[in-house]
Every structure is written in structure tokens, then in C-alpha cells.
Amino acid sequence: MRSRLQSARRLIVKVGSALVTNNGAGLDLGALQEWARQIAALRAEGREVLLVSSGAIAAGMQRLGWSTRPSAMHELQAAAAVGQMGLAQAYEGAFSQYGLACAQILLTHEDLADRTRYLNARSTLSTLMELGVVPVINENDTVVYDEIKFGDNDTLGALVANLTEADCLVILTDQSGLYTADPRKDPSATLISEGDADDGRFEAMAGGAGTGISRGGMITKVRAAKRAARSGADTVIASGREPDVLLRLVAGEALGSFLKAGNSPLAARKQWLADHLQLAGTLVLDEGAVKALHEGKSLLSIGVTEVQGQFERGAVVACRDAAGRELARGLINYSASETRRIARRPSADIEALLGYVDEPELIHRDNMVLA
Q: Which of 367 and 146 is assigned the larger pLDDT?
């Protein structure tokens, strides 16, 4: 199963608070530099890497001289605001040593639940990767409420894997991986080297909460693996203190726990499109567009002859031929009113007609399933 890691082209790497802050002692600049070095090496191999980093609250606690994580919401948010400054500066310095630019992306789970904001985030991350920039993603702990109570960037890592259709989610932690029981309490506990992400037994094995620095624990990592698997991403839970852990994982070394997804990313996404979303509208296509779809190409605005219904960007719409036969359905990159304005016009005219270009395709083939 681990051979899938060797061919992975897009990876989400999540690092936990205990690693980022050396168990709360302050930002571990040496550790950040090591991850930057490994990510630079992965980039040199032609892989894309997005980094999801915890640590803002923990770094802020250290800067403010707090040894115990506060429970008051305004104090947590203040710690996040203070810590985020140092965290961003530290990553900028680490990646610049290897000739890489990085960008700070602050998200909430609401950003990924709202379809328009979801697509905006997806477009931004795609553009950054095309530009060769490493996205450094964190939860926007200065404004959220429920999420900050859980401190759960494991889930955020899984959501980013879903968002970007990543091949693998690598969760780096202060433990060697998933054990049959808590190895700190049970000396007979054994490491689970490989398994299925949907194996229901793993949640029982992982029970327990996080430390005083983080609020995750192994249970959130197992649940994140299940969530990542929904879009076909495998998950590895491994020790971030293992030398060259990222490079050794993609080389196929059996480190940590490998939790395999049941479907490929594209197959899972297309199954989701085909079975689980209601249609918000219909596009009627000309013969050229019908032929293009049968050839596996994306749908361009020039091939649309009619727009039916009212929908927003990111809605699921049907694509039909002139006789009314459904050919495909997919996520559309423009609203109904915008689609009507650019229908029958080439992609090169979109900016002049709308004042901006989000995507050159009306529906990208990766966001489309044929009927």
C-alpha cells in the first residue's frame, strides 16, 4: 500500500503544536527549518506540498508568558493574534533559506462549508501552487469560536486535502503513529503500520484528548484520516521528530501508520458529484461542446447556447444537448447571470465581459462527471 506514497504528486503536511513550539517552550526554529528543507527537496522532485501548521496559540502563550492554556475565548483569541505574527515570520525565514516563497492562508471551517468561499479558497491555493509558492495554512483562531475550542487542525488538514484533491495527508505529531493502545500507559501497545482509513476499530484505539498545549490527540487524527479518505487521499500519521521523515516516507520507508483511502481522489470526487448533489440549473450545449465532453475535455463558455435556472458560482448544473439528453453534470465556475453574459463567447472575452476571470473553463473536466 505504501507504494502509493512514492507516486503522490500533491501532499498536505500537517504539523502539530507540540512540534512547532517544542512542547510549549517557544517556536522551534530548527524544526521549522528542517521541514522547509524537506519540502524544498520534495518540490525539487516535482511534488506539490501544502503545509497546515498549528502553533499560533501556543506561540502566543509563550510570548505572553502563559504556561497554561487559557479557557476564556478572548484570551485564546489574543494569544492566537500574538502568536500568528511570530509563526508567519518564522516560516518566511525558514523557506527563504531554500529559495522558496511562502504565503499565509488563514481559514475557518466555515470557509470550506460555504460553496463560494470554498471555490475562492481553492482558486487561491491553486494559483499559489502554480506560482511555486508554498501555502502555509492555519485556522483563523482570532475570529472563530467552536473550532478554537477543539484546536483541531487535524480536521483542517483533511478539509484542505479534500479542497485541493491531494493524494496524501501527512500528519506529523510527537508520537510514532497510531498504536493499539496508548503506549504511554500500556507497554504492550503495538504500532499499527498499515490499515484502512475507514476501519472503525481505530477510533476506539485512539481515544483520549490532547495535551495542555494542543487540543487534538490521536482521535482527531484518525477521524481526519476518515475525512481525507472521502476524497481519495491516503493518510500517514508519523513522528515529526524522525530525521528526514517526509523524504523517507515518499521513498517508501515504513514509518508511522499508513491509513489507506478506498478510492482514488478523482473517482471519489466524481462519485460525490454523480450521487450526492442536487442540480441547480441546466446548460444547453452546441454540437462542438457535446463532442468536446465526449472526448474528456472541459466545458468552455463558447459551447453554451442556453442557460436555464438561477444558480451561484460553485453550484452543480446539468449539461444537456439540444434534444434535452443529459450528458454530464459538474461544478460551475460562474453564476447564472455571469454564464448568460459569456455564453457563446470565447474564454478570451470573459475578462472584458465580466471584469475578471476566475477560471478559463466554465466547468473543468476534473469537476465534471459524464452521464
A: 367
Would you state the cell numbers that stand for residue 64, as one nine-digit string?
A: 505572553
The answer to whether the Cα torsion of 278, 283, 284, 286 is positive or negative is negative
> Was 14 annotated as part of a binding site?
yes
To the question of whether residue 173 is assigned a binding role by annotation, the answer is yes
As a CATH number, domain 277-370 is 2.30.130.10
Residues of the chain with CATH 2.30.130.10: 277-370
CATH 3.40.1160.10 spans which residues of the chain?
3-265
- The annotation status of 68 as a binding-site residue, yes or no, is no
Sign of CA dihedral 282, 283, 286, 287: negative
Separation between Cα atoms, residue 51 and residue 39, nearest integer Å: 9
Identify which has the larger pLDDT, 333 or 72.
Answer: 333
Torsion, Cα 155 160 163 168, to 10 degrees, reads -100
Q: Domain 3-265 falls in which CATH fold?
A: Carbamate kinase (3.40.1160)
The answer to whether 186 is annotated as binding is no
In which residue are the cell numbers 482527531 written? 220
The reported pLDDT for the residue numbered 73 is 83
Consult the annotation and say whether 152 binds a ligand.
Answer: no
Q: How many CB atoms lie within 10 A of CB 188?
A: 8
| Separation of alpha carbons 294 and 109, rounded Å | 36
Q: Residues 6 or more apart from 108 whose CB is under 8 A from it?
A: 139, 140, 143, 144, 147
Q: With beta carbons less than 8 A apart as the criterion, state whether 357 and 350 touch.
A: yes
Contact 32, 94 (CB under 8 A): yes
- Please indicate if the annotation marks 185 as binding a ligand: no
Output 155 or 264, whichever has higher pLDDT.
Answer: 155
C-alpha cell belonging to residue 305:
447556447
- Listed in sequence order, the residues at least 6 apart from 183 whose beta carbon sits closer than 8 Å to its beta carbon are 175, 176, 189
Question: Which pLDDT score, from 0 to 100, does residue 146 have?
Answer: 54
pTM for the full predicted model: 0.76
Q: Are 244 and 35 in contact (CB under 8 A)?
A: no
